[in-house]
Amino acid sequence: MKKQIWLAAGIAGMLLGSPAAQAEVNVRIGGDRPPSFVLDTRPNFINVPNLGFHVSAGGPQDIIRYNGRYYVNHNNRWYISSNFGGPWVIVREGRLPRQIRRHRWEDIRRYRDVEYRRHESRRNHYDHNRERDHNQYPNDGGRRN
């Protein structure tokens, strides 16, 4: 009973006596553990027009970036974060944005891989042309006048 009174008084004091502030809350309910993955470096993302969001490419985790948030499906659990480095919080599949929820992981990966190959092909074509121009016009750094 005393704990509840102190808790209520503390909450009331925080709400009434402090200016608006941003806070981040991680809630663990039951036996849910935080995810067992860590992302040390910013992933490379590919825009996948067929999906309507960005998907990471070439990293240890498949990550979705949509509307300023990051989503990971790890061990059949969905996690969300406002930063690719975490903290990651479990989110129920039904609470995912519809744009993500409507696609299966297999389809997401397939679309991502197709778009990645297109991207690499365009980049290789550009690099090849740049090298050709440099060899053809060696004194002007590959620029044509």
Task: Please describe the topology of this protein.
Elements (H helix, E strand, L loop, with lengths): L1 H16 L26 E5 L4 E5 L5 E4 L2 E6 L2 E5 L7 E3 L6 H4 L3 H32 L9
Antiparallel strand pairs: 1-2, 2-3, 3-4, 4-5, 5-6
Q: Could you write a compact summary of the structure shown?
A:
With 145 residues, this protein is α+β, with helices and mostly antiparallel strands. The chain has helices at residues 2-17, 98-101, 105-136; strands spanning 44-48, 53-57, 63-66, 69-74, 77-81, 89-91. The longest helix has 32 residues, at 105-136.
Structural class by helix and strand composition: alpha+beta
Overall strand count: 6
State the helical fraction: 25-40%
Compute the average pLDDT: 75
- Largest sheet entry: 6 strands, antiparallel
Low-confidence residue ranges? 18-30
Q: Quick one: overall form?
A: elongated
Q: How do the strands line up in the largest sheet?
A: 1-2-3-4-5-6
Strand portion: 15-25%
Listing every helix as H and every strand as E from the N terminus to the C terminus, the arrangement reads HEEEEEEHH
Radius of gyration: 24 Å
Number of helices: 3
Q: List the domain count as a whole number.
A: 1
Distance between the termini: 84 Å
Q: Quaternary arrangement of the chains shown?
A: single chain
